[in-house]
Amino acid sequence: MVSQGIGPTVITIKFFSLIREAVEVEGLSLEWSPDLSSVAMVKAELSQRGANWSDALSHPNLIQAVNHKVVFEDNAVADGDELAFFPPMTGG
Amino acid sequence: MVSQGIGPTVITIKFFSLIREAVEVEGLSLEWSPDLSSVAMVKAELSQRGANWSDALSHPNLIQAVNHKVVFEDNAVADGDELAFFPPMTGG
Amino acid sequence: MTVLVTKDSIDLGNLYQVFVERYPSAAVANFAGHVRDHGDRESVDCLELEAYPEMAISQLTALGVEATSRYGLHAWQVVHRYGELSVGEPIVWVATAADHRADAFAACEFLMDTLKTDAPFWKREHSGQESSWVKVQTRDLERKARWLGGSDTA
Amino acid sequence: MTVLVTKDSIDLGNLYQVFVERYPSAAVANFAGHVRDHGDRESVDCLELEAYPEMAISQLTALGVEATSRYGLHAWQVVHRYGELSVGEPIVWVATAADHRADAFAACEFLMDTLKTDAPFWKREHSGQESSWVKVQTRDLERKARWLGGSDTA
């Protein structure tokens, strides 16, 4: 399922802060398919990797971004998109 | 009446902006006496110097200061005080 | 106008000088935020700022465009550090230039209040052997909420 | 903390650098006002700023003390020019340092809004052969009035 290739048939996923620590990886790529056509579907897929993944991705304050914009779970995910999962931001 | 000496028996008076232009002098000193023991009394005395003086000192927005603080006309004036007359400030 | 997201240290005097020379305007406001020696933890030795730099640039640019449209800015600049920062070091610098000071001030506060919760940075405080992620402060959420209604300068 | 009333030109970058190094604080806000190329007159070649320097120092110091008491400042600085100024030159620079940005911003705006009407400076605009004294702006009186009720940061 995990693809090392960076190309038009994959989506890139990044994790930050608490979420990155929980899933123990900074990012990964998935081969895109119609089964991964929304953020919720990507979360469901990733949550099958273990309790640490499902716990992290059901974090009550989880924020999700597609192509650098914060979105809701029902946002579409297309070929080549970059997703990110992280807790509330604390910059400045 | 005008004293050139700077000492404990005089009051110093300064004029700025429009008021300075009207009275055609930057400042002067007066020998202090009980007849000059309020701002109003100093204004009355100065207003006798001519129409340009009485007009300037009855300017509707005239501001008066004693020892670098804005005051009302009934403020006391004592030996050694510094008075100033000017229009509304426009700094910054 | 300009967004810089960087691991390098910031020279505030130089940033300011370049900004005012480049964008001559009647009113120039700016703000610098520095690492505190206390936070969620009683004492903080240093701060680790994790970033999502590509998204940070995109978000900060969007906030600058919004500030420009709300307040008619001539220019604006946001510089944000990430990586390891010592106590006292500048984390963030925001500058705004406008015709009138009310607009320059309001835009500068708008940028600071919104970037705190909308730009992808995460602070981790280190104190001796211990460290923890900084929690979002209610105060910051409240200050951001002030701007959601529109271009009110309150 | 520091008031400077001067005929000399101001080096903003240097002022800022010295201020942040001297008074390390979490939140530092500042504002610079520059000579506009227009004003009461359609075009302005240069500005003449008359001053009552001794009273200006006393008034600006009093405003700084008031800002410190309202907003718990760690430090503040006001620099005000007088004499002949060209278009684009800085007239006034105000900096404030506090623990939190809301206080630093509010104090900086408080100082700017009050010094405009309470510090003894008078602007005269020159345009070609003509010149005239600048009138007090209603906007400035209104902005000052915001602060008369107490420590409201609105």
What CATH architecture of chain A do you see? Roll
Order of helices and strands of chain C: EHEEHEEEHEEH
The count of DSSP E runs of length 2 or more, i.e. the number of strands of chain A, is 5
Instruction: Let me know the average pLDDT of chain C.
Output: 93
The largest sheet of chain A, given as strand count, sense and whether it forms a barrel, is: 5 strands, mixed
Q: What is the second-level CATH architecture of chain C?
A: Alpha-Beta Complex
How far apart the termini of chain C lie comes to 24 Å
Strand order of the largest sheet of chain C: 1-4-6-2
Q: CATH-wise, what's the superfamily of chain A?
A: Beta-grasp domain
Approximate helicity band of chain C:
25-40%
Order of helices and strands of chain A, N to C? EHEHHEEE
Low-confidence stretches of chain C: none
Q: Please name the CATH topology of chain C.
A: Aldehyde Oxidoreductase, domain 3
Main β sheet profile of chain C: 4 strands, mixed
User: What's the structural domain tally of chain C?
Assistant: 1
Strand content of chain C: 25-35%
Give helix % range of chain A: 25-40%
Work out the helix count of chain A: 3
Task: Write a concise synopsis of the structure shown.
The complex is a heterotetramer, with two copies of chain A (92 residues) and two copies of chain C (154 residues). Chain A is of the alpha+beta class and 92 residues long. Helices cover 25% and strands 25% of the residues of chain A.
Structure description:
- The complex is a heterotetramer, with two copies of chain A (92 residues) and two copies of chain C (154 residues).
- By secondary structure, chain A is α+β, with helices and mostly antiparallel strands.
- Chain A has helices spanning 17-23, 39-47, 51-57; strands spanning 10-15, 27-31, 63-66, 69-71, 82-86.
- In chain A, a hairpin with a 2-residue loop joins β3 (63-66) and β4.
- In chain A, α2 (39-47) packs antiparallel against α3 (51-57).
- Chain C has a single domain (2-150), classed as Molybdopterin biosynthesis MoaE subunit (Aldehyde Oxidoreductase, domain 3, Alpha-Beta Complex).
- In chain C, a hairpin with a 2-residue loop joins β7 (121-127) and β8.
- At the C-D interface, α1, β2 and α3 of C face α1, β2 and α3 of D.
